[in-house]
Amino acid sequence: MTKKKVFIISHSHWDREWYMPFEQHHMRLVTLIDNLLDLFKHDPDFDSFHLDGQMIALDDYLAVRPERKPELAAAITAGKLRIGPFYILQDDFLISPEANVRNMVIGRDEALAYGDEVKLGYFPDTFGNMGQTPQMMALADLDTAAFGRGVTPTGFNNQTGGADYASQYSEMWWQGPDGTRILGLLFANWYSNGNEIPTDPAQAKIYWDQKLADAEAYASTDNLLMMNGVDHEPVQADVTTAIKVANELYPDYEFVHSNFPDYLAALKNSLPTQLSTIKGELTSQETDGWYTLANTASSRVYLKQANTRNERLLDSIAEPLATMAYPAEQYPHDRFRYAWKLLLQNHPHDSICGCSVDEVHREMLTRFAKSTEVGRYLAQDALNTLAQRIDTTDFDTDAKPFVVVNTTGFVKSGQTEVTIEWDRRNFSPEMTIQAQRAELEAELAALPTLQLVDASGQAVPFRLVKQAVEFHYDLPKDRFRVAYQAIEITIAINVTGLPAYGWQTLALQAAKESVTPIEGPTRRAFSEHEFSNEWLKVTVASDGSLTITNRETGHIYHQMLVFEDTGDMGNEYIYRQTADNQAILSTDFPTEVRLVHDDALGVEVELINQLAIPVSADEQLLAEQQAVVDITHRTAKRSTVTRPLTITTRMRLGRHSRQLQFKTSFDNQMRDHRVRVLFQTNLAATTNTSDVIFETVTRANEPAANWQNPTNPQHQQAFVNLHDAQNGVTIGNIGLNEYEILPKHGTIAVTLLRSVGEMGDWGYFPTPEAQCLGAFSCEYSLALHDGTTEQRLVSYQQARNFQVPFSVQPTDWHAGELAADDAYLQLRTLEFAVTSFKRANNSAGATLRGYNLTKQPVTLDVSCCQTPATAVNFLEQPLPDVASDQLGPAEIKTLLFAKK
Asked: For the Glycoside hydrolase family 38 central domain, which residue ranges apply (predicted)?
């Protein structure tokens, strides 16, 4: 009789920081690896230890124990310590597509530097799994993924399978939206199902009777997986003794201390022909809805905002600029990797999700700041270099030229500002600083009438924002710093139709009669709480909500931009409305409207809402928190004491823009509550679409029948959309990762802030800083479209572009090899959403990566650098069977442009 084989894999799921600050976890990690290196020497039966799939643990260990690196490397080479394939264990949904890719690439590179990686996509505790995981794993040369959440295991009650989110076994096929299929392993009994194995025979008998039955309830083969470890678990030093005891107790089983490569090989050789196929993203759709942990998307919103800006700075500004500015040999690969690693250190699930103690998230802000400053330096240096390559001799020699660059993969329009140096005085011993300033102020007072022109000499509208004498300094690369004072003129301009990776050169100069005059608007666009352009008409209603008309179709939307405040007695993981179940709406309070600008650039209007909000929850909440009462059983209500909450929203509608942009600001001094902005669409739609990881995913507006949570929160990256056959609404955002569809009126609700006072999970961990007291600003956008796919896709691309500002660089009069107005590449496929344009890691070429926004095949029309394109995977290895000019449904494509 063939024995069943029990594979026992020692591991420790190492949350780098969570319920303790990083350094507390760090010191325990050092002890763990010290003990492992000693155990490897003294127990020849100890097969190996799985280091949680994340390479950062080695960096952290060696920061304290650099002298043990040779010993560590030897253990890895001998297969005793199993490493990779990722750099960190990330949260899937809250980091960008490119951050997910860089996590895999950096992790693999660092693993291969030691010898090899464990070829297993490892997601033991991610809070839901992205639908494109199968395709992403395949593009990283991985064919299996292991995960702990998102699928409902049904054991032998469902022999046929077939449900998208349920499997009769712990092994299943996982299929992505493009059709890619990989093997999925669910930790059906969690990744601690073989933890702390007894060595006492009597205890071991009780232990194994239960553990074997649990595993066999879901296993599809006679190869059973037992994970010997759990969160921050020290290694079980006597595990090999415990295995010997188990083998003596159970003659029908073979217990082995093992590793993932051996287990996967045995499993794949014995899989049954009938396995369930699960499809797309796995977010516990078919559960009661309480523990999906999707509300981590709104915990500590300030982290999500900082993360989004940091990511866009690296993947959508600095890297494209450096690719456009430098030859391949000068591209700063090492500095970019340093910046990415700093950023990735904030991407573990307990970190970016905002569900740790306060000390953890304070340290995250420092990492964001460090990575951001590196990104700013790299972007500015590249922008300076690019501007010097652009010919500005079409302008007068005394003009002040500057370059505007679109670093996104889609045509971009919008408003930007530039500060131009009109004249300067370097600090010198010949003249006092005060005398220099007086001279410049006199010149400033006598400035001529100014005019902005393009390279053909045509006048361009602008708005004067500021002019003043300011102190600055230069840091030349070949000499000491240069301090100076200068007349600086800041102007705002509209940029229209700047192509992907394109630039336009403009210049500020003294006005000339020969320049073609600006044609101003035929009438003012703002009148009596109403403003418009050729695409939109916006009316501020008497209750402070917006009525917005799509002037192209005539369709009218009411009750847009309504602010909602509710009590929250949940925690950093889960929103739970207080028992009073009361929503406070801005439409029930006074509203003030103020015109800010109405000129050739467009209209800006300020809307001020005055709400009265309870100061906190009542005293019952603290008692329930301290008693560790589960949120589903809490009864707290809101305080009867209220304070004013002033919400100020700046609305901007460009002269020729389809996109209405919002910046909402408020000073939060209330606790235990949530603030959302609501857009009521009244569209007859049963599904919504959202921008997630390499996919525009379609989700049902109504949850499954067994869903009990009164709310249905969802993740987004850049936008959410509702549409029917004739009309649609796309709401974009910058770092606002949580939305919900309220089906009754087709309302899109975007969370702006959630204030809670505890971490949650397995105990009471107070987190007063998660109340997010202080000043907040949130940026988001609205675009209306008709029923055509083209307009809908344009709104998607524009929402993605909303996260990326123009790059603007003043320069001087000089000759250059690049035209004043041009583009680095030509991209003519609307459906292709670009996520990265950078120099190749391992060649002199450039790589362009993106994905199909649709589920339809299209032709990919792109050209760059007069070089042919080759399809490659995430590791930049050629894919000879993949056409470079075709884009399949939901396909992720990386093109390498390299001269042969």
From this structure: 296-368
The tens digit of pLDDT for each residue in 425-483 reads: 999 999 999 999 999 999 999 999 999 999 999 999 999 999 999 999 999 999 999 99
Query: Residue 56 has which token pair?
Result: 């950062």
Its sign, for the CA torsion 462, 468, 472, 477, is positive
pLDDT at 848: 98
Predicted local distance difference test score (pLDDT) of residue 150: 93
Which are the contacts of 137, defined by CB distance < 8 A and separation ≥ 6? 121, 143, 144, 145, 182
Which one, of 352, 148, 184, 190, lies nearest residue 280 by Cα?
A: 184
pLDDT number for residue 865: 83
Residue 886 phi/psi, 5° resolution?
A: -125, 145
Q: Please tell me the number of Cα atoms within 13 Å of 335 on its side-chain side.
A: 18
Three-state DSSP state, 647: strand
Q: Contact 637/603 with Cβ under 8 angstroms?
A: no
**Cα torsion 479, 484, 486, 491: sign:** positive
* DSSP calls for 736-783: --EEEEEGGGTEEEEEEEEE-SB--TTS--B-GGGG--EEEEEEEEEE
Candidates 117, 121, 80, 82; CA nearest to 100 is 121
Q: Which two tokens stand for residue 38?
A: 């000693």
Distance CA 548, CA 749 (A): 17
Cis bond upstream, residue 70 (ω within 30): no
Residues 335-365 pLDDT 10s: 999 999 999 999 999 999 999 999 999 999 9
Run of H or E residues at 678:
strand 673-680
- 5 touches 266 (CB < 8 A): yes
125 an active-site residue? yes
At 740 the pLDDT is 98
Report the pLDDT value the prediction gives residue 585, as an integer from 0 to 100: 98
**HEC secondary structure over 121-132:** EEECCCCCECCC
What is the b/e burial string over 498-518, where b = at least 16 CB atoms within 10 angstroms of the residue's CB?
bbbbbbbbbbbbeeeeeeeee
Sign of CA dihedral 808, 811, 817, 819: positive
C-alpha angle with apex 704: 699 to 706, nearest 5 degrees? 155
Q: What is the DSSP letter of 317?
A: I
* Pairing of the two strands 81-82 and 49-50: parallel
Q: Which of 232, 235, 146 is nearest to 197 (CA)?
A: 235
Residue 160 has pLDDT above 50, yes or no: no
Q: How confident is the model at residue 802 (pLDDT cuts 50, 70, 90)?
A: very high
User: Cα(291)–Cα(283) distance, rounded to whole angstroms?
Assistant: 10
Residues belonging to the chain: 900
pLDDT band at 155 (very low <50, low <70, confident <90, very high): low
Distances (CA, A) of 577 to 621, 636, 899: 12, 9, 59
Going 123 to 124 to 126 to 127, the CA torsion angle's sign is: positive
Residues 94-103: tens digit of each pLDDT? 999 999 999 9
Q: How many Cβ atoms are within 10 Å of 209's Cβ, its own excluded?
A: 12
What's the CA gap between 711 and 758, in Å, rounded? 20
- With beta carbons less than 8 A apart as the criterion, state whether 753 and 675 touch: yes
Beta-strand pair 687-691/673-680: unpaired
CA distance 186 to 153: 8
- Residue 33 φ/ψ region, left for φ over 0, alpha for ψ in the -120 to 50 degree band, beta for the rest: alpha
494-552 pLDDT, tens digit each: 999 999 999 999 999 999 877 665 554 445 677 879 999 999 999 999 999 999 999 99
Contact criterion met (CB below 8 Å) for 215 and 185: no
Q: In whole angstroms, what separates CA 652 from the centre of its chain? A: 25
Q: Which candidate in 47, 92, 125, 618 is catalytic?
A: 125
CA dist 81 and 484 (Å) reads 57
Q: 77-102: b or e for each residue (b if 16 or more CB lie within 10 Å)?
A: eeebbbbbbbbbbbbbbbbbbbbbbb
